Amino acid sequence: MIEGRYFAMLGPPASGKGTQGRLLAERLGLAYLSTGSRLRREIEKGSDLGLRAKTYLDCNQYVPDDLAIELVHSWLSRCSEGWLLDGFPRSLVQARALMETPIIVGTSSDLPIQVIHLTVPAAELRKRVTTRRECSNCGATTTSDHQVCPKCGSAELIARADDSTEGFEKRLQSYQSLTLPALKVLQESLAVHTVSGLGSRDEVSLAIQEKLR
Ligand code: ADP
């Protein structure tokens, strides 16, 4: 039995955050936000937020902290019943903002946020990005072996523009220099569960559930 209702899922690019985040959110009936997918959607729509984010995503850089925090806070203010954030926080400033979240969203000050940290060796991540595909219809992540999305059946499976070798290396570097130090700070105040992201979708999902019990 998993007690928690508030989670942040972190991991390097292609570690399986999206897949595992969605699975856990579905299993526990939590609202789910992938900041990366939301930013890509806002860019497609040409919204004000999308326009502010575009240049950063085009260069494989993290968006500025204030933009990421604005996105997350506005989403959190609409769901207090339990949530999972995929890809937030990614920096020290964002980590501090998350730790102050209970005050900002007006919920209980002892809101027990738990962090799930997925680890995968860089060589495996490099292999994964070359075969990763994203469903344009529902946003699910799959691999190039599939002709249609295993989740919604759509045939619109596309390689992400930022999954080039160069794009991936840049994002991995940001993860190491900005997100790993943020994890250290989170560890001082929140429960951080480190789980290996190696293995099948179901194996990793099981490993996450065991850590959370
Ligand atoms: P990945 O983990 O492979 O980079 P995501 O879909 O999680 O993929 O994120 C895509 C991009 O969106 C990131 O490289 C970054 O530019 C931007 N992004 C997402 N979340 C954040 C965040 N919390 N802070 C800053 N930038 C973010």
Structure commentary:
- The protein is an alpha/beta fold and 213 residues long.
- It has a domain of 148 residues: 3-Layer(aba) Sandwich (Rossmann fold), CATH 3.40.50.
- It has nine helices and eight strands.
- Strands 2-3-1-4-8 form a five-stranded parallel sheet, sandwiched between helices. A three-stranded antiparallel sheet has the order 6-5-7.
- A hairpin with a 5-residue loop joins β5 and β6.
- α1 packs across α9, α2 crosses α3 and α5 packs across α8.
- The radius of gyration is 16 Å and the shape is globular.
- The site of adenosine-5'-diphosphate (ADP) has 18 residues, from α2 and α3.
Which structural traits does this protein have?
single chain, 213 residues, alpha/beta, Rossmann fold, 3-stranded antiparallel β-sheet, 9 helices, 49% helix, binds adenosine-5'-diphosphate
* Residues in β-strands, percent: 15-25%
Separate helix tally: 9
Small molecules bound: adenosine-5'-diphosphate
Sheet with the most strands, sense and barrel status? 5 strands, parallel
Report mean pLDDT, rounded to a whole number.
91
